[in-house]
Amino acid sequence: MTQSLPTVNECPIQIEDDRTGMSVDTLKRAFADNLFYLQGKYESFATPDDFYMALAYTLRDRLLNRWLKTFKTYVENNVKVVYYLSAEFLMGRHLGNSLINLHVYEKIRQAVEESGLNLDELLEREPDPGLGNGGLGRLAACFLDSLATLEIPAVGCGLRYEFGIFHQMIQDGWQAEIPDKWLRFGNPWEIARPDQAVEVKFGGHTEMYHDDKGQYRVRWIPSTTAIGIPYDTPVPGYDTNTVNPLRLWRAEASDDFNFDAFNAGNYDGAVAEKMRSETISKVLYPNDNTPQGKQLRLEQQFFFVSCTLQDIIRIHLMRHKSLHNLYETTAIQLNDTHPAVAIAEMMRLLLDEHGFDWDDAWRVTQTTFAYTNHTLMPEALEKWSVTLFGYLLPRHLEIIYEINRRFLEDVKLWYPDDQGMLARLSLIQEGPEQYVRMANLACVGSHAINGVAALHTELLKQDTLRDFYKIWPEKFFNKTNGVTPRRWVLLSNPKLSELYTSKIGKGWLKDLDQLRKIEAYIEDAGFREQWHQIKLENKQKLADYIWKHNGIAVDPNSMFDVQVKRIHEYKRQHLCVLHIITLYNRIKQNPNIEVTPRTFIFGGKAAPGYFMAKLMIKLINAVAEVVNNDPDVRGRLKVVFLANFNASLGQKIYPAADLSEQISTAGKEASGTGNMKFAMNGAMTIGTLDGANIEIREEAGEENFFLFGLTADEVYKVKAAGYNPSEYYSKNAELKAVMDRLTSGFFSHGDKELFKPMTDSFMHHDPYMLFADYQSYIDCQERVSKVFQDRDAWTRMAILNAVRMGKFSSDRTIKEYCEQIWNVKPVPIQLEEYNQDSA
Ligand code: F58
Q: Which Gene3D superfamilies does the record cross-reference, listed alphabetically (predicted)?
């Protein structure tokens, strides 16, 4: 009897296939196989990086079946997909995350150990992909984790920067920036899809013509084009079969262009043009909270937006005849205004390339897009010079003018006599130079607008976007941020996770509210002791890291008082420094004074062009040098600046923190997400009523939160009444002593000029109101010190904090987006019967 062979497509993948099998033996064999065939190395010649790569491929293989099945299920069932457009995705290392999501951590540990290696060392070899600046980029990564875990069809869409956020070194106390060559050894997690490349146009001009029906149409004749190549990275959900893609675009020169130039013998010109195109995805702009109005930045934004929208349209048209029902298959979320040019690009594609009339195109656009705002600071709102915009994207500028014309016609009807309203709502800012206001474009082109914490959304409604709120209150939503408990608790704090699971089972990992069940153990002294020991172990590990990297010995029994985040004046790292100097002065006055021993730990990058932020880093290190070496201090205070804070360093720091510093000037921090990671890992918060701190305090209970400082409202009022920082200086003896020490050159080897720009700013302007909050902060820190001396009281409070953070799981945030903004439902992925066991 002859049997027909299965076609390639139908060829089943078997359980113990070396690429899917999950037994320790199979994993070991696959690991060795990948070392030989993919790294091309004998074991005896392999480097730790080779071993890491071989292990990464072993895991990627095990994600592929689920990944392809996920894609197939989405296409076949014609499901609605969320496209999360973001200029940044700060994913963190993939290997550890894949191990926990595939439930193979222990087996891989065994396989690696039996191969004579150490898993922790291999995990440390993975470069941390730094394709983002801070909170906004990391939020995008947490959202992708939650989307996959909740089985929501979703694609992350962004740029594949060849160089991510710079590597920070500290030299003589100053920040030095080193390029981040994260792709040096290749990237085992991505798959290039050159077959799905698209063309992106730039520059040139537009012309009118008549189409076959005699209608006026516009054609864009670009001056240059670039090619976008997609690279897909798998994003596995926890405890599901879903593996969604993160699709990042790399820019390449278009062949046609090179060909013409080469043929004309213009080799130099062709090469220059090639370089120009490839520059688009070369490097991430390292600014946080202040956009840079550079042409290349706009090119980056348009490039990934155009690639993404062409891709979305292609995928929709695989299943549908027209784009009129795009909103039924597609929800597009704009992560801040960086991708907001998508509104104009969608209109262009529909009008010019798919023959839509204006009203239909506008309806499709508005029903598909939604916009998240991440900042209140006016200087952080993106705007592009009309000249630059029109030069780079002439057709889009025409479209934006037309959107604006129609929009302002409506506004005139609604508010006939309000010129101010018209001027404020306009997509174009008038003046000696005209600008396109990207937030206005995003608001007009979206059906939903949201802030990222309750206070932030309120302030958007009352202030930053108040005119839009007036005309469209129904478009506004609050979506308080969250973080994924898989990376930020399970992976970062395995001991604490084990303790939870031993008491209440594993349910908390997908439903963080369940952690409240742990409250039942609060009276159990043994439980509290276990908790305390875990914290101590985590602190010991961080102390080892500090010793290794900074050569500073710190005491794990001291309070680890931590501030890690981007360095920015509004975040007020320098307020924490004023506290350190206050304590130091007290010790100098009376060396026998009783102080609660503290280790102050800082970490964070300054934007390379942000002088004051760089000076803050220098100040921290200068104070550290004095305090750490003064015999009077007797080691009771230590100050440490950890270089190159990033996601993987965060994973070491959050679990070891006792005190989380969330001390921004009220009304400035949109949400914050580090605050959530600290609290989930059992750190107490000292904070202002800013961003999500307010909601953290609500959840933890007022009695379990160290509150200080002016409220956003008070900040506004004190400023309006004419804030004079020098009055605080003259009236507050301790503050005066701190400032006098700072200006005396005591921390700068006698150099009185070094910190003058900062001390002058405090004394004369103090835009972030450090002086106004100083006394309240110092008093609050006194309370912190007192409670910390009562170890048991502290542990109780820390436990309550950690287990009451259920609200801040990004799963909750994503569920709200799904229900209220995107209108999407989970789509479970079924694996073939014979692969169930390998799930
Ligand atoms: C941050 N923004 C907010 N922007 O500052 C923070 O409060 C919030 O928790 C977080 O977003 C998530 O919602 C932020 O990180 C940037 O880094 C931009 C990068 C590109 C240039 C402009 C700032």
A: Glycogen Phosphorylase B (3.40.50.2000)
**What's the pLDDT score for residue 267?**
80
Instruction: Say if ligand 1 is within 6 A of residue 288 CB.
Output: yes
Mark whether 812 is an active-site residue: no
What's the rounded Cα separation, in Å, for the pair 69 and 234?
Answer: 12
Is 387 among the catalytic positions? no
Q: Count H helices and E strands in the chain, helices first.
A: 33, 23
Residue of the nearest CA to atom 19 in ligand 1? 288
Q: For residues 612 and 567, give the distance between their C-alpha atoms in angstroms, rounded to a whole number.
A: 9
Rounded distance from Cα 815 to ligand 1 centre (Å): 21
SS3 of 634-663: the string is CCCEEEEEECCCCHHHHHHHHHHCCEEEEC
**Averaged pLDDT of the chain:** 96
Q: Rounded to an integer, what distance in angstroms lies between the CA atom of residue 5 and that of residue 129? A: 43
Element (H, E) at 175: strand 174-178
Structure-block tokens of residue 141: 């990564």
Using a 6 Å cutoff on CB, does residue 672 contact ligand 1?
A: yes
Q: Quick: pLDDT tens for 579-633.
A: 999 999 999 999 999 999 999 999 999 999 999 999 999 999 999 999 999 999 9
CA of 726 to the centre of ligand 1 (A): 32
- Contacts of residue 730, defined as CB under 8 A and 6 or more positions apart, other chains included, come to 736
Q: Identify which of 285, 288, 373 to mutate to test ligand 1's pocket (most ligand atoms within 8 A of the CB).
A: 288
Does residue 837 have a pLDDT over 70?
A: no
Q: Locate all alpha helices (DSSP H) within 115-179, ordered by sequence.
A: 119-125, 135-149
- Residue 815: CB atoms within 10 Å: 16
Average pLDDT estimate for 329-337: 98
Confidence check: pLDDT of 3 > 50: no
The residues with which 201 forms a beta bridge, in sequence order, are 225
Residue 312 has pLDDT above 80, yes or no: yes
pLDDT, average across residues 194-220: 96
Q: Alpha-carbon distance 802 to 305, whole Å?
A: 39
Task: Say whether pTM exceeds 0.95.
Answer: yes
**673 in contact with ligand 1, CB cutoff 6 A:** yes
CA-wise closest residue to 192 among 231, 244, 155: 231
**Gap between the Cα atoms of 662 and 672, Å rounded:** 8
ipTM of the shown complex:
0.98
